[in-house]
Design goal:
The structure is a single chain. Strands 1-2-3-4-7-8-9-10 form an eight-stranded parallel beta barrel, surrounded by five helices. Strands 5-6 form a two-stranded antiparallel sheet. The mean pLDDT is 94. It contains 18 helices and twelve strands. It is globular. The chain has helices at residues 8-13, 33-46, 68-77, 93-106, 135-147, 178-193, 207-219, 235-242, 253-264, 269-287, 301-314, 362-375, 382-392, 398-413, 462-471, 478-481, 496-501, 510-515, and strands spanning 19-24, 53-56, 82-87, 110-114, 150-152, 157-159, 166-171, 198-201, 225-231, 291-295, 336-338, 345-349. Helix 6 links the parallel strand 7 and strand 8. It folds into two domains: 8-343, TIM Barrel (Alpha-Beta Barrel); 362-515, no CATH class.
Length: 516
């Protein structure tokens, strides 16, 4: 470790520095080449005072790999700060909490909290997906742990010693449709309010989108540091990303053509890839990003050295490099109006009230009428229905009532009988049955051109549908105003209606759940 090494958090919080992190991918196995390469590169990073940390991935692509925190501890011993990709997949909330305690005890404190990729393969077949908590839930849990959680104990309650995690999250400004982009930004706001101190972008190569994110954060007074993602893009990986085979990464047809053209021309193709990354480094620094995260398959320290050295050389003329990252998606939506002089954006948001919304939904209109008439706290029939529900809850009618409720909701809403219903918060679309990742506070980053990451071409992302349903009624911003806690599985297969009227569901217990 060099004497002048600055920590990841210190570099990120210093307005006069650009934080530098390097993404390492451990891979499957315990003593394979990929794990040894990660540790060797961590040693090299420790000796480079420009690099403030290494980010370590967690089962990327939905395939098993060595636990990120295990290699993080080894990397830390070499003198480089690790930043763990702490995903919400493959673990229930207890396992997430247990892993957090283990990392806190080991001194691993930098966490990039994200949903995680949908599982694709495992021992003897595809594993059962587990998405018990989303990124917003997990950030809130970590925030409570940092405060010193008050928990139930054998006699009364006890307060745990406070942890010291430094947490971040991910956002994709590279979405094509208005609904996809705005719901990404809505969830971003929830993540920051739930404790995310830094935000790393998903992968994209559109300078105007990078610029848009900075302006959106500033425009909405969001308090978080921004890190731009730089991927050293090879032709093979570009084609995979172009087909959304690596969810959340955007490589347009025009960029693929450009990369394939470069591959056929004279010159070192790897050098061309590194030069593109150095140019993006310069653009991100010029735009005012607080840090960059460099990633790519099989990168050596010499590759990182080139990107940083050449990127600094190019930085004074960063505006001249914007045309190298002019790869918009055809007919893509931007939140801000374009600045024709710079190729970036003006500080003027578009009038998205005049952009296209979904036609008025009959099902939404019907369910909203029922909610406003019987279920809303200020509904005219709420006192009567609430009284009846309290009576049913204490009689033999409870079981047949529950059976009838789920027969109705199974037909109308594909109900999974969780008993902790969030339909009324998401335009009457069920996040438990309609979203493969069971996201209750906004979309994951994997949707592509409106389609769900898991079922492309078959199922639209529910948050795209919800946004456009609500926009027809000028209510789309309600998606960023509501926080929906993780499902309470004590209520599984009980009546969500009776739970609602008897004060057992999340609508009356949000604060209490955060304390447990």
């Amino acid at each position: 470790m060099t004497e002048n090494k600055v920590s990841f958090e210190e570099a990120l919080m210093d307005p006069n520095r650009l934080s530098i992190t390097w993404e390492l991918v451990p891979g499957r196995g315990a003593w394979e080449k990929s794990q040894e390469h990660v540790l060797e590169m961590a040693k090299r990073a420790a000796g480079d005072e420009r690099i403030n940390g290494v980010t370590i991935t967690d089962n990327p692509g939905g395939r098993p790999a060595i636990l990120a925190s295990t290699l993080a501890i080894e990397a830390k011993d070499y003198g480089i700060e690790p930043i763990i990709h702490f995903t919400c997949k493959d673990k229930n909330r207890n396992d997430l909490e247990s892993e957090l305690y283990a990392m806190a005890r080991s001194g691993v404190r930098n966490l990039l909290v994200m949903t995680g990729d949908y599982p694709l393969e495992g021992y003897t077949g595809k594993p059962k997906p587990v998405f018990d908590m989303d990124a917003v839930h997990t950030l809130r849990l970590i925030e409570r742990m940092n405060e010193g959680r008050d928990i139930p104990a054998y006699k009364g309650r006890m307060t745990l010693k406070a942890t010291n995690f430094f947490t971040g999250a991910v956002v994709s400004p590279f979405k094509k449709s208005e609904a996809e982009l705005m719901t990404q930004y809505y969830k971003l706001e929830k993540k920051i309010k739930s404790g995310a101190k830094f935000i790393i972008t998903q992968l994209g190569f559109d300078a105007r989108k990078f610029d848009e994110l900075i302006r959106y954060v500033r425009f909405n007074n969001l308090d978080a540091k921004l890190i731009g993602n730089i991927y050293v893009l090879s032709p093979a990986v570009a084609r995979l990303m172009n087909k959304n085979r690596i969810p959340g990464c955007v490589v347009t047809d025009d960029l693929v053509k450009q990369i394939e053209k470069e591959a056929k021309e004279d010159g070192d193709i790897k050098q061309k890839q590194l030069l593109r990354s150095a140019r993006l480094y310069a653009v991100l620094k010029g735009l005012g990003y607080d840090g960059v995260n460099i990633s790519g398959h099989g990168l050596e320290h010499s590759d990182i050295d080139y990107i940083l050295t050449r990127g600094e050389e190019l930085s004074p003329d960063w505006q001249d490099l914007i045309p190298y990252f002019d790869y918009p998606q055809p007919d893509g939506f931007y939140y801000f109006k374009k600045d024709k002089n710079t190729g970036l954006n003006l500080d003027q948001s578009v009038d998205n009230k005049v952009t296209e919304a979904r036609d008025f939904s009959i099902s939404y209109t019907f369910f909203n009428f029922l909610h406003r008439t019987f279920f809303a706290r200020d509904a005219v029939f709420y006192p009567l229905v609430s009284s009846i529900a309290k009576i049913i809850d204490k009689t033999f009618l409870k079981k047949p009532f529950t059976y009838l409720e789920y027969k109705i909701k199974g037909v109308t809403n594909d109900c999974l009988r969780c008993g902790d219903c969030a339909l009324h918060e998401i335009a009457y679309l069920c996040p438990m049955s309609r979203c493969p990742k069971e996201q209750r506070n906004g979309p994951c980053g994997g949707s592509n051109n409106r389609w769900c990451e898991v079922y492309p071409g078959e199922q639209e992302c529910i948050y795209v549908t919800a946004y456009e349903r609500l926009k027809a009624y000028n209510k789309e911003e309600t998606l960023k105003q509501s926080y929906i806690p993780p499902c309470d599985w004590n209520l599984y297969q009980t009546s969500s209606w009776l739970n609602y009227f008897n004060g057992r569901d999340f609508t009356t217990k949000i604060d209490e759940r955060d304390k447990q």
